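Re: that chain you flagged

S.,

Sorry for the slow reply, it's been a week of failed gels. I finally had a moment to sit down with the sequence you sent. For the record, here it is as I used it:
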Amino acid sequence: MIRQLLDVVGLGKSVDELGRMDKRQLLFQTLNFGMIVSSALMIWKGLMVVTHSESPIVVVLSGSMEPAFYRGDLLFLTNYQSEPIRVGEIVVFRIKGRDIPIVHRVLKLHEKEDGTIKFLTKGDNNMVDDRGLYAPGQMWLERSDVVGRARGFVPHVGMVTIVMNDYPKLKYVLLSVLGLFVLLHRE
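Prediction finished late last night. Pasting the structure tokens below so you have them in one place:
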């Protein structure tokens, strides 16, 4: 079954090549694969430092921000603490107890006398504000809840991520094929 799948995607001959590689070539290809993975991680960490965001790139997962952003749009974020949050700005925030961040627009600001700011958000395509999404008893978001602010986007590029999350087996097959491709191609 696996051999047939590899033949279908054009890697059947490449697997045969793996058997013909000597130890030195195999070690070189493995190190090459490690360099690619390390480079990707360094680029991600570098983006985190430059943008001051724990997640500098996110994918819109729902239609709650249509027509501003559609499901599958890739957002680029920054999170500079020195810039004040403003009404109308699109922020990405995380609710305590939930893993997936939410992309919505700031609807209202509430500034206290001590200078702290709290704010309320709402999806452009939603009928009501986000208080129903917040943690129990939470009425406003604070600056610490913000993951980043939308600074730019690329339409529909994130659909690949959505499809891979919807079909986890496909994700593992694609990652395996890409890993084999890197290990087996000598250029």
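What I noticed first: The chain has two domains: 2-51+160-184, 57-156.

Talk soon,
D.
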